[in-house]
Amino acid sequence: MFNREALKELKKWKESENRKPLILRGARQVGKTSLVKLFAKQFDIFINMNLEHREEEALFDKSSSVRELFDAICFIKNVQPKSNQTVLLLIDEIQNSSEAVKQLRYFYEDLPELFVIAAGSLLETLIDKQIHFPVGRVEFFPIRPVSFTEFLAAINEAQALQMIHQLSGPDYAHQKLYQLFNQYTFIGGMPEVVAFYAQKRQFTGLQNIYDSLLTSYLDDVAKYAKNSSQEHIIRHVIRSSFYEAGDRIKFTGFGKSSFKSREIGEALRILEKSMLLQLVYPVTSALLPLLPDKRKAPKLMMLDIGLVLHFAAIQTDILKSNMIQKGFEGKVNELVVGQELLSLMPSVRSQLHFWTREKKTSNAEVDFVYPWNDMLVPLEVKSGESGRLRSLHLFMEQAPHKLAVRVYAGKFSVEEHLSLEGKPYRLINIPFYLLSQLNDILKKHC
């Protein structure tokens, strides 16, 4: 079953006493509608409104009150809810109607017994700038690609899933768990791709699905570009971003183009709103709160590692090597770790960050920093089972705590280290396949 964690969160929303209409945020094709349809089995009645259909969108323009609107919806959909029945209303592709966005607050105020979920892609980009989501009257929840644990559940690897939840499995499990994570890295977390692999257990045929997904993202450009010139720039940025993924980028000359920095920056921010990519900015402090320095070059992270590898045409190499570190010049590791970290973050405002110290004499960079409790935990990604930790040492000399993480290809272990200046700290070595349990591991070894 996909999106098991998301289903748990939807169940919490359903049971909340102060429930508000819920807006699902996520890129196209990450399974928002499928998730709601699965969740709908917990209700007596499910009403699915798709505002790409003009006759359904028109209902929101014509109704004078939310109660009249709901009566019209029930009439069109041929349902007659009784007073004791639970009703879930999905307003899909809500970005097509600014009036539907306005009505969300009235569902909350006038029909609190109705369960309302709205979904759509590019919401902030497509809705008129004068239309805002009703503040305090709606909730948001992000839907991201399938995580590694959800991938295991989908392909019925129940024992592997059980091992992972034990936090540190026996030695005999390490090789298989690592191979399974390598499969996940190769395939990625796009639901349609995972579903195909779970059913067929073959890689032949996946390429057509990836191509279809990439084509749909390129086709979307016409919907939110201001003009044909910007449409051309955004298409260039999408194609180039898959090659630049994992690198720190400069807007000027991005993708070996002659476009201006302002044009590239605007295109990247549009795609970031669509959740197709993320600009990951550095922090220079080892303390919370996170204060990213947007004057410095960001790293570029894409929606899904499987799409990146497909676009780069190196998936076969990754699969044959059985070692993720041999693909894409080592960037694969950071990309898949970033994807897993985002799956642990339940807010639509969640952002990845890394740490950097830039001096004339020497530079240092830690791949990720992870807010946990009142600490900013450094997380270094290593391809093999060993590697220098100089940047991690430098971070820990600034940090007010004594906890650091290395994600690598080795087995789980905990070591006591000294920084370059002799500060003691605890280094938790986490194999790639255990990253989904990061919060529990930190809690156990803090």
Mean pLDDT: 90
| Biggest sheet features | 5 strands, parallel
Calculate Rg over CA atoms. 23 Å
Percentage of residues in helical conformation: 40-55%
Which strand order spans the largest sheet, edge to edge or round the barrel?
2-3-4-1-5
Q: Structural class, from helix and strand content?
A: alpha/beta
Strand content: 15-25%
What distance lies between the first and last C-alpha atoms, to the nearest angstrom? 32 Å
The residue ranges in which pLDDT falls below 50 over 5 or more consecutive positions are 323-327
Q: Rough shape?
A: globular
Number of DSSP helical runs: 18
What is the tally of beta strands? 15
What features would you highlight for this structure?
446 residues; alpha/beta; five-stranded parallel beta sheet; 18 helices
Q: Can you put this structure into words, describing what you see?
A:
This protein is of the alpha/beta class and 446 residues long. The strands form 4 sheets. The chain has a 5-stranded parallel beta sheet, sandwiched between helices. It has a 5-stranded mixed beta sheet with strand order 11-12-13-15-14, sandwiched between helices. It is 43% helix and 17% strand. The protein contains 18 helices and 15 strands. The protein has helices spanning 4-15, 32-39, 54-62, 66-77, 98-110, 123-126, 148-154, 158-165, 171-187, 191-200, 206-224, 228-244, 261-273, 305-312, 315-321, 331-343, 390-398, 438-445, and strands at residues 22-25, 45-50, 87-92, 115-119, 139-142, 277-280, 282-283, 299-302, 354-358, 363-366, 368-372, 375-381, 403-408, 413-418, 424-431. The two termini are 32 Å apart. Helix 9 crosses helix 14 and helix 11 (206-224) packs across helix 14 (305-312).
